[in-house]
Design a protein that fits this description.
The chain is an alpha/beta fold and 229 residues long. It has helices at residues 13-27, 38-46, 58-66, 99-108, 118-129, 133-136, 146-155, 166-174, 205-214, 217-225, and strands spanning 3-8, 30-35, 53-56, 76-81, 83-88, 111-115, 140-143, 160-165, 179-184, 193-199. Helix content is 42%, strand content 24%.
Length: 229
């Protein structure tokens, strides 16, 4: 039996897993998936690691394409993820209606948690833009992945606040992690992260078919159900 490997960004985990399962069922081709932050996907592929299909942001995919590591006509748009404010499941729901109320919440937090992935890089820039970095100081906590943000907030219920992809939050809530969505980031500071799929150069023909399945119209309905629109 043919086995294909997907190396994918973690924010689209639920959708990728569901589409891959449907692909397995319809084709009989086994699909293995490894989820990791986008910077790690880019680094590993650029440094020579191979997979059959990769899922990453357009910027990372552009770099990988420039290195002639993907099949150009297999590249397709999966969807976009929004960011949200994560709090402990037992915490009272705050009102986050605009940037001012968002800043008030962060300044009152015991910890403000971000990751090292694309959304965390955006968060770092946002905190600088809002002139919060110096004010928050050591309250800012950096973890590796989106799931680690949720776990940190779950383990620190006293006013810890995480800033993460809503799709990743949904995954962790499904697993029983003691967190919830306080609100999406206010529109004026919202970050929409796009994701794409592509087959890697040298992968079998089935990989092209799988990459195209991830970006197909039917797949978009599945991704929408997981917070990727």
């Amino acid at each position: 039996m043919t086995t294909l490997k997907i190396l994918s960004a973690g924010a689209v985990k639920r959708g990728v897993a569901r589409v891959a399962a449907a692909f397995e069922k319809s084709t009989g081709t086994k699909v293995e998936i490894e989820f990791t932050p986008v910077p790690e996907v880019r680094k590993r592929v650029i440094s020579g690691e191979t997979a059959d299909v990769i899922v990453a942001t357009p910027a990372a995919m552009d770099e990988i394409a420039a290195a002639n590591k993907i099949v150009a006509d297999s590249r397709g748009h999966i969807g976009r993820s929004r960011m949200g404010v994560v709090i402990h499941a037992d915490a009272p729901m705050p009102t986050i209606s605009d940037t001012a109320s968002f800043k008030t919440l962060l300044l009152a937090a015991s910890h403000v948690v971000r990751n090292e992935a694309s959304s965390g890089i955006y968060t770092e820039k946002l905190l600088n833009k809002l002139e919060l970095t110096a004010q928050l100081g050591s309250k800012i906590t950096v973890v590796k992945t989106g799931s680690a943000i949720m776990q940190y907030v779950a383990d620190h219920p006293a006013q810890a606040v995480g800033l993460a992809q809503i799709s990743e939050l949904m995954v962790m809530m499904d697993k029983g992690c003691a967190v919830k969505l306080a609100a999406p980031l206010p529109d004026e500071i919202q970050n929409m992260t796009s994701y794409e799929a592509a087959a890697m150069s040298g992968a079998p023909a089935a990989a092209v078919e799988l990459a195209r399945s991830l970006a197909a119209a039917d797949a978009r309905k599945i991704f929408a159900e997981t917070g990727i629109s």
